[in-house]
Specification:
This is ABC transporter substrate-binding protein. Keywords: Signal. Pfam families: Peripla_BP_6. The structure is a single chain. The chain is an alpha/beta fold and 476 residues long. It folds into 2 domains: 222 residues, Response regulator (Rossmann fold); 180 residues, Response regulator (Rossmann fold), CATH 3.40.50. 35% of the residues lie in helices and 17% in strands. The protein has 14 helices and 18 strands. The strands form 5 sheets. Strands 2-3-1-4-5-6 form a 6-stranded mixed sheet, sandwiched between helices. Helix 2 packs parallel to helix 12.
């Protein structure tokens, strides 16, 4: 934008109208109660120097950047919010030359990089779009934040983009909400809305290319959850597979938690499917895998490697079916995978990722999971934008982010670039097999199965929806 955003002049226009801007989303998109939670005490932490590194430079900028952070840090899906915050914490720590220190709890926490204090006002969205919108409005109108970061629910991300960030002219860095529509539809995309985190289109476009080019599968049946996440997976797989000459023999959307899989898998087999794709989360995948493992099917299941939570459930099912201990011999020929992964700790071997994994495990007792590279990069990019612009103002940070290639990321140096046509960062994706969890990772990865070393890499230039594609309805 050529004109400086004057956020404070727009705050009065937001007010309570931002709270009621949209009707509630479906449960799968993170709708819920209207309960607002601003609780938590204030804590301040400063990054300590990490051996072998140099404390970060603010590039001429000084002062404070106030960031309103919106993540679920309680409830059944608090691990999603935890890993998002732990990844963000690691990105700030890396830029500061220190160790990750942020706790996944509400309140105010501060990380210092050079001469700039990053003051994080962390709020618990409880995975609710209504709550996220209310909290975001409060952060903008009452706390006067310079920008917003977060949102795990795609429905909440869309809501906050439309009714808070765009109305109040406050930059929003989304992560890890993954529906492709957040940065591909005109209503939710904006010059002020960014996402470093990988999305469902990147899952599908990477996985679809691998299936078409590297496997013997020539016909696929597509299944997905009947909300934005599942539809994005199915629609993007369909587009890529058809473009690559793979026959789509059917597709079906089912509610979250659907369990009557035997009949649907029989339908896929009767339609001649050699492979099936499942666009589901942990709410639905266990029932699908149970029916598949108990049936007599010849097709292969493709999709995306999920978080530790889902790998623990699916791994438990495999243990029950195949017996303990799980071995590679038992998994070979089962027809499960390979799967694409946005990021897992063992997919990248570089200096940044090695420091990231070590610091994350030391701080949080876990290896970095699916969402963490994207939120590490979100933090890294914000610091880079402050350094390059020499400013702590939200408008200047947003201006510097547009088209930025992010220097420091877990996937390597300069591995993420924000596309100018929709502010979605593109990055490489990998494909990995399902293998038993190695002994060296068993204490920090609480699942019986893990991704193998990469069997394929999909270039960043091929992972995102192109500017001129039918599915890209954002043109900034």
């Amino acid at each position: 934008m050529s004109k400086r955003i004057t956020r404070r002049r727009t705050l009065a226009a937001l007010g309570a109208s931002g709270i009621a801007g949209l009707a509630g989303c479906t449960g799968g998109d993170g709708s819920g109660s209207d309960t607002e939670n601003n609780g938590g005490g204030d804590t301040t932490t400063e990054s300590s120097d990490m051996e072998g590194t140099t404390a970060g430079s603010s590039g001429g900028a000084s002062g404070t950047v106030k960031i309103g952070v919106l993540q679920p840090v309680s409830g059944d899906l608090q691990y999603y919010g935890q890993q998002a915050l732990w990844g963000f914490s690691s990105g700030l720590a890396y830029k500061a030359g220190g160790e990750p220190q942020l706790a996944a709890e509400t309140g105010t926490q501060t990380v210092t990089v050079g001469d700039v204090d990053y003051e994080l006002l962390i709020r618990d969205t409880q995975f609710s779009a209504d709550t996220a919108q209310s909290l975001a409005t409060n952060l903008v109108t009452d706390e006067d934040v310079d920008m917003l970061f977060g949102l795990t629910s795609s429905g909440a991300a869309t809501r906050v983009s439309q009714t808070v960030a765009q109305q109040a002219s406050v930059p929003l860095m989304i992560g890890p909400a993954a529906s492709a529509s957040v940065t591909s539809e005109s209503e939710s995309c904006s010059e002020l809305v960014f996402r470093a985190s990988e999305n469902t289109a990147m899952d599908a476009r990477s996985g679809g290319r691998y299936v078409a080019r590297e496997s013997d599968v020539s016909s696929v049946y597509l299944f997905g959850a009947d909300y934005s996440f599942g539809r994005a997976v199915v629609n993007n797989y369909e587009a890529v597979l058809e473009a690559e000459g793979v026959d789509i023999v059917g597709k079906r959307f089912v509610p979250q938690g659907y369990s009557e899989w035997e009949g649907l898998l029989d339908n896929a087999a009767e339609a001649g499917a050699e492979g099936i794709v499942g666009g589901f989360t942990v709410a639905t995948l266990p029932a699908l895998f149970t029916s598949y493992l108990n049936g007599d099917y010849d097709f292969t299941i493709f999709g995306g490697f999920a978080t530790e939570i889902t790998n623990n459930v699916v791994g438990g099912l495999l243990q029950n079916q195949l017996g303990e201990p799980l071995t590679q011999e038992k998994l070979d020929g089962l027809g499960v995978g390979p799967f694409t992964t946005r990021y897992h700790w063992n997919q990248y071997d570089n200096e940044i990722n090695n420091a990231f994994v070590d610091g994350y495990v030391n701080a949080y007792g876990k290896v970095p999971d699916l969402f963490t590279s994207g939120t590490f990069t979100a933090a890294s990019s914000i610091v880079q934008a402050v350094e390059e612009s020499g400013s702590t103002e939200g408008a200047d940070i947003a201006s510097a982010l547009r088209g930025m290639t992010v220097a420091d990321t877990p996937k390597g140096t300069d591995a993420y670039t924000f596309q100018e046509y929709n502010n979605q960062a593109r990055s490489e994706m990998t494909v990995a097999n399902v293998v038993p969890t190695a002994d060296e990772w068993s204490d920090a990865w609480g699942a019986p199965i893990q991704p193998s070393d990469p069997v394929a890499r999909i270039s960043a230039d091929e992972t995102t929806i192109p500017a001129d594609a039918d599915g890209m309805n954002c043109s900034l």
